[in-house]
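Cross-posted from the bioinformatics board.
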Amino acid sequence: MTKFLSDNAAPVHPKVWEALRAADEADDPYDGDALSAQLDERFTDLFGRECAGLWVATGTAANCLALATMCQPHGGVVCHEEAHIEVDEGGAPGFYLHGAKLMLCPGESAKLTPEGIAALIDPIRDDVHQVQPHAIAVTQASEYGRTYSSTELAALSGFAKTRGLGLHMDGARFANAAAFLNGKAHDAAGMVDTLAFGFIKNGGMSAEAVVLFDPTQADLVKYRRKRAGHLQCKGRYLAAQIIAMLENGLWLANARHANAAAADIASGCGERLMHPVEANELFVRLSAEEREALRTQGFEFYDWGADAARFVTAWNTRDEDAAALGRAIASL
Amino acid sequence: MTKFLSDNAAPVHPKVWEALRAADEADDPYDGDALSAQLDERFTDLFGRECAGLWVATGTAANCLALATMCQPHGGVVCHEEAHIEVDEGGAPGFYLHGAKLMLCPGESAKLTPEGIAALIDPIRDDVHQVQPHAIAVTQASEYGRTYSSTELAALSGFAKTRGLGLHMDGARFANAAAFLNGKAHDAAGMVDTLAFGFIKNGGMSAEAVVLFDPTQADLVKYRRKRAGHLQCKGRYLAAQIIAMLENGLWLANARHANAAAADIASGCGERLMHPVEANELFVRLSAEEREALRTQGFEFYDWGADAARFVTAWNTRDEDAAALGRAIASL
Amino acid sequence: MTKFLSDNAAPVHPKVWEALRAADEADDPYDGDALSAQLDERFTDLFGRECAGLWVATGTAANCLALATMCQPHGGVVCHEEAHIEVDEGGAPGFYLHGAKLMLCPGESAKLTPEGIAALIDPIRDDVHQVQPHAIAVTQASEYGRTYSSTELAALSGFAKTRGLGLHMDGARFANAAAFLNGKAHDAAGMVDTLAFGFIKNGGMSAEAVVLFDPTQADLVKYRRKRAGHLQCKGRYLAAQIIAMLENGLWLANARHANAAAADIASGCGERLMHPVEANELFVRLSAEEREALRTQGFEFYDWGADAARFVTAWNTRDEDAAALGRAIASL
Amino acid sequence: MTKFLSDNAAPVHPKVWEALRAADEADDPYDGDALSAQLDERFTDLFGRECAGLWVATGTAANCLALATMCQPHGGVVCHEEAHIEVDEGGAPGFYLHGAKLMLCPGESAKLTPEGIAALIDPIRDDVHQVQPHAIAVTQASEYGRTYSSTELAALSGFAKTRGLGLHMDGARFANAAAFLNGKAHDAAGMVDTLAFGFIKNGGMSAEAVVLFDPTQADLVKYRRKRAGHLQCKGRYLAAQIIAMLENGLWLANARHANAAAADIASGCGERLMHPVEANELFVRLSAEEREALRTQGFEFYDWGADAARFVTAWNTRDEDAAALGRAIASL
């Protein structure tokens, strides 16, 4: 069986294992250890602008803690109608934001544009009867594996600024997006206020980072992280994972590998592709019979509605498996 | 330097490391893997009554998710005035229980008694102006390292039942309590409704268990766990830790070791002890000069107010270090 | 100027004033007075099935307190995408339900159908990643002034029961709906679990009722009402309003008057009507110039988008004003 | 029967009735009417410093909405351990503040002092494990009918400022306190940030005011008021009550009457008084037999524990009834 179900259950990368073991040595609790203490500087170096970096165990928590810096309980967060925070986080934003509202915006390939957002929020009356938007959340790469270019991000951050809205980026697959773009973290992040930087799908075990480009917000997030039960007492094991991923660009190398595998599969899909393949996810038009045929050949993947399938590659996808899947689809 | 600061930053036990590495093999996401699937049965076997077992990353989350099964947002949870959930969880119960109230009860050695609870809640008028208690939370071992005997637990669960209250046990150091008692999990847990069973302080890395003795509550906790951002996609690494700890009684062996080290230190403390030493924590009357003297000898520990110190042993405390500390205190 | 802006600012009905003054006599605080004590029986008589009736000061509070009996914080409430609870209550359901989600359903004239709801909720995966529906909320009369017949309500309550969902009715204009139907409260309410029965728009000052057809839920609502700051100490003045409205069918008489006025206006609107006029609201296609012309004649009303207007009649709308408006529209 | 149970169920003052009836005329909904529009200026005039004034229906809502301007969900509010917000508001602060914590401080006659607060909060570790105070709430007059002098208030506001804490005043009986002090609202309020100014106990029906001495906070409170279901559509009837009470000092005259009645009773109590009588509440040591004797004579009041009783006077307490009660107690 060759699995293309998701990158979210891939094994932990050997370099991350090494770092985890080495973290046994440190012994200060919570985030008081030497590894956790490095994160601000590591991310500041990576993004080329001052920021704070905090570990948490899940992307859901990372997104929600970041959003709490920019949306009050009586406000709203504009996101795509198929955004993970809306569709797949079990209502976590409602919990973390104390009842704030997700304001759902359509958009091609699960991407937002200033025009689309304006069309959603301009009709909102400026009175207390209607929930006002406080923030925007984009996903890089999007739920359909599409990326935002720096030009698109500049337009979004300009729009957010003009409207007085915060701008958050869900970067569960930020590495894959950056790898597709120019490999530069700062271009892939643009001028967002906060980023949930994903490492787990990309070779980590249990550590994502909340990156705050306004470091004065770090205190708020630290209190909220504790309050949400996300301040692990052996936090050094989370910091170690993140540092290992950032070290020598492992995050980018892993993502490039996964992206290349996806591109390889894509080359066999032709017109079947529902979205251009820019990261490590493929959405492919396939009939029930075709899906059955692929499964008979040993490929595992999720159905995507009645007439399509989703394939996801990961840092550990074997080249030959990707090539085989590409050929198999081409041969249908 | 010999550290007696806390057990919460101790390294991960070799058996747990082994289990973690082995978990690379599994590859189903969230709690759909074969390891997570074993937890219900493992805990049912251990406690000898049917229960559900769910992993989470912290004791704070474990406590709060368990309490959410028994306390509505408009209710209250009776706990000791020095309970961890009141003093050291950054307001997490207020978050998870949506504003419910902790109702603070005094009690010797941070333990609760039916009489003490009755004295607290009996004066509450049965009207909507006053928050009504919905649950009781005890800590086994208590914040001062004391244990509840099965007799005491029976009295508490009887009382809770009579009053229609849920009964939760914060078991951050449940293993140490069980080791002091008769080594039987079911006696150390009594007839509580829910237990936050701690493994992290006892050799784990990042996994505690919520044990629900009414397994029909598991669904609620699963939805709330996801909503709190605590459903890790590589959850198998948490399940692996718990299983490793339960395997061949490692949880008990580790706790016995820590308790023995504490007892060894206690033997040098005599009248200085503020509380009988039953688990792995010691609260010792020591003047500022005496504490300084111990630190000069290389012992690390926390002050406990102006005239005392707290020492904590762990699964990896070396016998000779404990003996040395005991002698050092005796020689003051 | 003749106002058709809304019924929500109409003066208080003389009979209600009388009852308010008479309530000076009573003097037990909160809901301990003789008037508040009558509500359960009054509503039980009216609906012909046992229920509890509680006063609150606003429809928003009434809706939210009722929904809290059927939707947990991690669940969702299905409502029309233009429902008042979604569009015009400032996020109150998110607050009262502690972050639960409104699940938006399309439907003609702002009405829901079992088929429409099924189309919305059937694709929701039965897993913790997706918020599960716990309840349905309908509005009688709907946001476009349409009513649900008993047949439609029976279909909805049957559907809700089958799916294990609670069923709430926002009855801000319940009286107008009942007046349009057969004048029987129990037919207009069908077998809903809870009803927010509006009196304020219909001649009251500051009292709506939460009607609970499962009276065992009354305790929950009473605690939540207090907790929301809605337990007024001089609650007798709210009870008095409700009783005055129920006495001798004043609620129905007032609604019939408003409906008749609306029907009169409707008779001049012909093809301009966007929705059949069943209650006391009219949505009328009118160009900007036509609206200007009406305003010049002294009529006040709200624009409804770029090409329409909304007119609302009330218990105190004068027959001649309604007739004049109908003629004015007909003459455009 | 002569009632001294509470001032919270007294009838509505004739001047307030007049104003209510007159408000029928106005007809703009919510707080868009001419009466509501006056409140900012009315309170600014009264207090001699710029402020915003908003009506709400209960003191509970007023307190909680005010506190929401100064305490974040992860923070705490220091209040007296017998404060109304802690003891008698059904957990409303936990609801409105989204789980924030009330931090309970002892203090004579239910009053707080900078020293008492410092003793409570200084031991709080400045780390994320412990909830940090964000605000202080005092009650004027206190739960035992005591007042804060301007000197005491200056000390409290200085302390709050130094510690970076907000300062709120629960003024359910603010008028009685002001009447006892020098009759000047600004001296009775000191430099608090927010005041819940009570009118209901003092002759109103259903209107209290949230007074915000930083008017830029008004927007937040308006959104939160709507979200809490406290924006009444016929808000003019609330504004009318407040204006009637402020007009020609009715608020002060009513309070002076109640205070005088209390003083008259107090003159018969001698050593029995548990607290000096400064406002309109008396806490009097009376045995069960003595209380029975008073009740036999027709006096109604609440027991206050096993050995005391509480008597409350109101704007409508008859002089002869107060005198009779004073004599009756003196004769025991």
